[in-house]
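Encode chain A's predicted structure.
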Amino acid sequence: MRDRLPLGISLLALVVAVVALVIAVDDGDGGDAQTAESATVAATTAAPAPATTPTARTTTTLGPVQTLPPTPTTAAAQQIVTATTTAEGDMATDEPGPLVLSVVGIGHDSNLNLRNAPEGQVIGRLDSQATGIVPTGTTRSQADTIWLEVQVDETVGWVSAEYVAPLGTTFDITPQVVAILGESPSAETLTGLGQLVANALAPAEPEPRVRISGAPVAGVVSGITMDVVGSPDDSLRGLRLRVFAQASEGGDGYTLRNVEGTLMCYTERGVSAEGFCN
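Encoded structure for chain A:
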């Protein structure tokens, strides 16, 4: 078994490589990231609202917010989109726009609860790769959890800060992964291949949270999305990895084709106009 390199060193190497190429290129919040299965059970066993209730609570269905009970998603419905590296001539030079957050670090079969107050009633659920989440600037610390007030489309609610983050630029990190592993890795399953890549980039300390945020999809383009949350760097929070594969010779597994990494930043520090973590 190879030694796992610290993420801080690995990521530094990645950023240096990107600069050379393009100038700069609940699992649980105390139970707040809820699996689709448990969410469905909760929805089907909940008692109906009393007849005397004057107004039924509703939830928005716009964007990534799901109506309760949530509609489960299947692996077949998941899509992996190849992001492209920002070319030198296309890099932004003005000030960054409003801070936008994405759900990070929860499994593809889970949802992040959107609540009407910290630890309050669930008014919606966000899927594992939901984005377009805009913080209002109001935060609250309660029961060892930092809560953020956010707006998603027309809905305003609260989410655990542990499971959202602004995402930065995306770049190819295939050479770095191959260099760490010593070869282009193969595995019997897409999940196994995704774990190999994620473990290669995960730090030993602090122990990161590694999740399959995008379900494995086999086809003409096969792939899986892994979130590695946790970094010794005080600027870079982690990486979202889109791992693409091709069928191995003989059809008995998958071999790595390429890996795209998206920077995962800290909400309080944000992202620069060029897409780097501040």
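The radius of gyration is 20 Å.
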